[in-house]
User: Fold this.
Amino acid sequence: MAPTTPATTVWDTKTQQFHGGQEWQFIDNFVEDFSVTTNGLGLPKKALQAARDSLDISHHYPAADQEPAKTNLAKFYAPDGFESVHERLLLGNGASELIDLVTRAAPEGPWKPGPWTVQYKEYERSAIALGRKVLAPKDATPASLTCIVNPNNPTGDYMNIEALKKYIEETVADNTDVMVDESMQPWHSPSFRSDSLISQPTWIANLFQTRGIAVYLIHSWTKLWSCTGLRLGSLVCPTVAHCTALKKVQVPWSVNVPALAFLQVVTSSDEQPFLDETWAVTTPWRTYTVDALTTLGQHVNSGKGWTITGEPFLSWVWIDMHDAEVAAQAVELAKRAGVPVRSGVPGYACHTCVRAAVRKPELVDKLVRAWQPLVKA
Ligand SMILES: Cc1ncc(COP(=O)(O)O)c(C=O)c1O
Assistant:
């Protein structure tokens, strides 16, 4: 099957890391973007309106202290005592900016990913760009910077809080840095905080005091609140001193006026219904997706079928079609039907895999229809 617009055309692949979410703008019959891991509910309406309204004051600079949005985010993180989070919190132009900031500031030396077979590439990209040696997850060489994505994009693997702490305690070397990316963790449930590192300030403080291990918590908010174009990320540092050191080298005003206005509202009670709906619909929509694709996979590959991985609460599925040719065709067919998916090839080098977002059932049906030609007579 001859490809239409190649997936990589918008990226300078010699210097940039491939990422989903670019093709929609080149597809004439575009219906829905399945190539990203954003919330299937789209942009929260009240927060979007606040961002729109703020364009009227966008001839002014954003607040240099990022307030009041920053305080609202700290309260979102820790409703019962936000001060300690607030004094260790930095906001960024997407998580990508903060990932790069921490990678620049971490002690010199090798970089290591978390335990998964393949993980979100931005951490590795930044490490390589800054001249760090990349170690394999099981390499016994101590890494100066370890980056764990939990839940992991793209595989959907997840360690609960006790498993995560144990992994860090057992694998991370003394006097080094760790970034833990929990961007997809708030999907867990209304009580997501209790299974997040945000619930572990004492453990984080002790780990730094006793072993010099600095644990940074990263969130990309562009997924949960579906605002990839607005750009919002945050970083909770292990101590106030770490936060101050990074603030000194961070570019000023990196979060613009509409993004701050959006954040202020999206973290308020006005948008609680959006979160409640997210928790209510994502797992049923994902179950629908898994069932539909499992059935299709059995018709496409009557031997192995398709293997679909990831926690039930997540906003995407990772599909191993067990056949590189079928996976390539699936990417092309989805694009032609206006429902692009994320190929497992660029960056991840998973030639038999495809990632697809969780969307409402009628949109999933369109993707399944687009993939019918994969079933050979
Ligand atoms: C796990 C994870 N972390 C961080 C990011 C970076 O996101 P952004 O810079 O849009 O906030 C992404 C984007 O796909 C991601 O999947």
Notes: The domain at 23-37+273-374 is CATH 3.90.1150.10 (Aspartate Aminotransferase, domain 1).
